[in-house]
UniProtKB/TrEMBL annotation, chains A, B:
Keyword presence, DNA-binding: yes
Keyword Phosphoprotein: no
Keywords: DNA-binding, Transcription, Transcription regulation
Source taxonomy: Bacteria, Pseudomonadati, Pseudomonadota, Betaproteobacteria, Burkholderiales
Alphabetical list of PANTHER family matching this protein: CRP FAMILY TRANSCRIPTIONAL REGULATORY PROTEIN (PTHR24567), FUMARATE AND NITRATE REDUCTION REGULATORY PROTEIN (PTHR24567:SF75)
Encoding gene, per UniProt annotation: fnr
Protein name, entry field: Fumarate/nitrate reduction transcriptional regulator Fnr
Lineage: superkingdom: Bacteria
Length: 240, 240
DNA sequence: CGTACCCTTGATGGAGATCAAGTGCAGTGG
DNA sequence: CCACTGCACTTGATCTCCATCAAGGGTACG
């Protein structure tokens, strides 16, 4: 296995407030440190886990950027999400003790390995941790509801606008700009996530540029008019 | 409130193996009975909970059939799932202490009310129950991955075939026929779930009838050729 | 028995897919 | 340093599937 492992420590991790509940005592934090014993590095293009693999751990992303995707037997696949620092990945594996999607690093990444059985043990003793785990899973369910809404009822422009706004908002939470971002994924991966072909993604970006809403230079995006993007998402029909 | 409440009991419920983990002792079962104290009846068309409502409980469906749906500010909405006896509903509410979707009964229904805080309490003491809750949530995440795949990459025929197969399979688990089912939802609700218009759903059913794959009489569906449906789902391109 | 809703079917239109060509950029090796 | 190669991206032309618009029919229920 081409993976590197290093000792992890949550207590002095600056992503603590993203991964963990607030209000943990020093002693509780120490016990969490003990089970989140190991970090793992994944090279760009490498897999954190893959469909069919036995499930043992959840992963908290420390650095880097991932995509998760599912596939049909006949070869089509669908990107189900893009995950960044502070987010938890691997929840799909719990139900059947095997992962049902692939997680691929879109840039060099590092994750904290959280053995799930130990996490369950600790959740039984630390109430706020238990509740936190439930909220993380519920958040993922709600996020996917949003994607279903997007895929089921939005047109291409709305999908892409919603996508860009979502990405930049999450990056902003992590201290990055509200108006600039660098895409870590290809047009094809964006298209797969949004249920569009890569040409449509490209054309739609071009249209946004023509309309003066964004600047696009390869994967570098600068948002010139956030409100216009929001209007596109919420208000498809210009008439009313 | 137009709801009726009655005392619930899991220990002699025939859906036990759908809602609860196996291997509970009598004493553990009794404690679960204690927290699942109440059942609630919902009339056809009534709401179990709605978007924005404070979250307090999960619900186990005892009888009846529900749809859940989310909506955008500008009024479009998307059915996110259809739920039947033995399934758990309300997981969306955990993350923000408020529900983010509507749950509507498509026929007269009865649910068991499971106050979530008490469920968390008990989960800390009964390991298999804790793990069960995690699996229920993970199962929902995986289910939604499947819907995303459907919405993002399948054509109308594939979507409807997958939908019918999924429904009949779940009904079969509950002791119903493998080849016959009664739809509890309208064509429009099916369309919303599948990202299609009701006319397309209707036309696609008609095409299946023409092809001798199913019989359709209003909401009564009889599957004549399950394999053909499976082939439509897995093998979109007839050429290869 | 009438009314309302749900469903089916036909005709037409349009958003996005597909097919195709060309451009720009990064990495490689001469 | 520059040609070469490969990949990601853009843009144009055409096609197709599904949406939309429209009309009619069946069924349930008061």
């Amino acid at each position: 296995m081409n993976l590197q492992t290093i000792k992890a420590s949550c207590s002095n991790c600056n992503l603590r407030e993203l991964c963990l509940p607030i209000g943990l005592s020093d002693e509780q934090m120490q016990r969490i440190d003990d089970i989140v014993a190991v970090r793992r590095k994944i090279k760009r293009g490498g897999m954190l886990f893959h469909n069919g693999e036995a499930f043992s751990s959840l992963y908290a992303i420390r650095t880097g950027f991932f995509k998760t995707s599912v596939a049909t037997e006949d070869g089509r696949d669908q990107v189900t999400g893009f995950q960044m620092a502070g987010e938890i990945i691997g929840l799909d594996g719990i139900v059947n003790d095997h992962h049902t999607c692939d997680a691929v690093a879109l840039e060099d990444a590092e994750v904290c390995v959280m053995p799930f059985d130990r996490l369950e043990d600790l959740s039984r003793e630390i109430t706020v941790l238990q509740n936190h785990v439930h909220k993380v899973m519920s958040r993922e369910i709600v996020r996917e509801h949003g994607v279903m809404l997007l895929l089921g009822s939005m047109r291409a422009e709305e999908r892409l606008a919603a996508f860009v706004l979502n990405l930049v908002q999450r990056l902003h939470t992590r201290g990055f700009s509200q108006s600039e971002l660098v895409l870590r994924m290809t047009r094809e991966e964006i298209g797969s996530y949004l249920g569009l072909k890569l040409e449509t993604v490209s054309r739609t970006f071009s249209k946004f540029v023509d309309d003066g809403i964004v600047e696009v230079k390869q994967r570098h995006i600068r948002i010139l008019d956030t409100d216009a993007l929001k209007r596109i998402v919420n208000h498809q029909r210009e008439c009313d």
